[in-house]
Amino acid sequence: MSEIIVLAEQRGGEAREITFEALAAGRKLAEKTGLKVAALVLGSEVEKLAEQLSEYCDTVLLTEDERLSQYHSENYQLVVSHILRERRPRVLVVGHTSLGMDLAPRLAVELGFPLITDCIDVEFANGRLYATRQMYGGKLNARVSARVAEGYILTVRAGAFRPSKTARRGVVVKMAPPELGGKARVRVRGLVVPAESGVSIESADIIVAIGRGIGEKTNIPLAEELARLLGGVVACSRPIVDKGWLPPDRQVGSSGKTVKPRLYIALGISGAFQHIMGMMNSQLIIAVNKDPNAPIFNVAHYGVVDDLFKIVPALIKKIKEAKGVK
Amino acid sequence: MGLLAQIVAVPELWLGLDIIVCVKYVPDVSSAELKVDSSGREIERRGLSYDINEWDDYALEVALVLREKHGGSVTAVSIGGEEADRVLRRCLAKGADKAIRIGDPRVNLYDPFTVAKVLSAAAKKTSFDLILTGVQANDDGYAITGPAIAQYLNLPHATLAKKIEIVDGRAVVHRELEGGVEEVVELDLPAVITVQTGIVELRYVSVLGIRMAMRREIKVMSLDDLGLSLEEVGEPWIRVEGLYAPRVERRIEFVGGSPEEVASKIIELLRARGLL
Ligand SMILES: Cc1cc2nc3c(=O)[nH]c(=O)nc-3n(C[C@H](O)[C@H](O)[C@H](O)COP(=O)(O)OP(=O)(O)OC[C@H]3O[C@@H](n4cnc5c(N)ncnc54)[C@H](O)[C@@H]3O)c2cc1C
Ligand SMILES: Nc1ncnc2c1ncn2[C@@H]1O[C@H](COP(=O)(O)O)[C@@H](O)[C@H]1O
Question: The CATH number of the domain where A291 resides is what?
Answer without folding.
Answer: 3.40.50.1220
